[in-house]
Amino acid sequence: MSSTCEPLRKKEKQELEGYVGWVPVAGRAALFVLAVGGVALFLRFAFGAASAANPALANPAWWIVPSVAVGAFLFKRARDWTGGKDLREKISQDLERGEAAVHTLHVLEGILIEEQEDEGPLVFVQTELSGVIRFAGQYLDREVRRGFPWPQITIREAPASRIFFGVRGTEGEVPLIERGPLTRMEAATLGPFDEEYLRLQSDFETLKKTLGLQKEG
Question: What is the rounded average pLDDT of the residues 181-187?
Answer without folding.
Answer: 88
